Amino acid sequence: MRQTNEPAFLNPLIALLTDFGQSDHYVGVVKGVIASIAPLARVVDISHEVKPHAVREASYLLWASYRFFPSNSIFVPIVDPGVGGRRRIIAARTEKHFFVAPDNGVLQLVGAEEPFVECREVKTDNSPFILSPVSATFQGRDVLAPVAAYLASGVPCSEFGPACEVPRSDVPFAASISHRTGYVLHCDRFGNIVTNIRNEMFESIAAIRIKRSVVANKIRFYQEGKVNLPSLIRGSSGLVEIVMKEGSASGRLGVQPETSFRIEWR
Fold it and tell me: Judging by DSSP bridges, how do beta strands 193-198 and 239-243 pair with one another?
């Protein structure tokens, strides 16, 4: 393992997003690896409570968070149901930020927002930038964390492996009336349901048909809502949410991430 304590940027920052939870040692070990390689790097926890294996939910949480971080932040989303398999690990960058992630769709929403200007497939054979031997079950420790730490220490993306393309997919946001079907991206701890409908389409929505319910009431802020009545609101992440005053909309409607719904436009 190559040793370097020289930071790439002033006060380099690494942001972690995982489905590890807090009851096991995994998060602490990842942070320990980063500290061993890049002791000057700051580490920020976005969340470690992503539902296990929920790649699309992690993709939303990453997208909702990354733009509020300082330039040159390094994001490490470790939600990886294919760990040890044939999926790649990539080191990529946009004009403002860096990402070290499994190539499993977790970067989908970020890629829909702004292009990646460089992408490298991280090589794990005889690489000085990873821990060896590489575990088949904990590559967050052995590959993703070391690569992020070396990025923070000044190693350029080009050192980690050959150039590759980030797979692009259809834009996952409903941003026009041509979208008739949407889906739930996330349900937060308050029971608020985050949809994939852009806030700018809020006034054009007549109703959302989700499960056996129709949600048509619109409010400007939570207190304006009615108890036990699911309502539509412009969410803080830029996406329309279904909420319920002093209650859980997701519990009331029986909704979870990946639930699809029908959009009725005015």
Answer: antiparallel
- pLDDT tens profile 80-121: 999 989 899 999 999 999 999 999 999 999 998 888 999 999
Instruction: Please report, for the domain that includes residue 29, its CATH number.
Output: 3.40.50.10790
Whichever domain contains 229, its CATH number is 2.40.30.90
- What's the half-sphere exposure (Cβ side, CA atoms, 13 Å) at 256? 3
* Residue whose token pair is 């000057």: 40
167 inside domain: no
Contacts by 95-98 with C-beta closer than 8 Å and gap 24+? 96/71, 96/72, 97/66, 97/69, 97/71, 97/72, 97/73, 98/72, 98/73, 98/74, 98/148, 98/151, 98/157
Q: pLDDT, tens digit, for every residue of 144-180?
A: 999 999 999 999 999 999 999 876 666 789 989 999 9
Q: Are residues 200 and 150 in the same domain?
A: no
165 inside domain: no
* Residue 215 shares a structural domain with residue 155: no
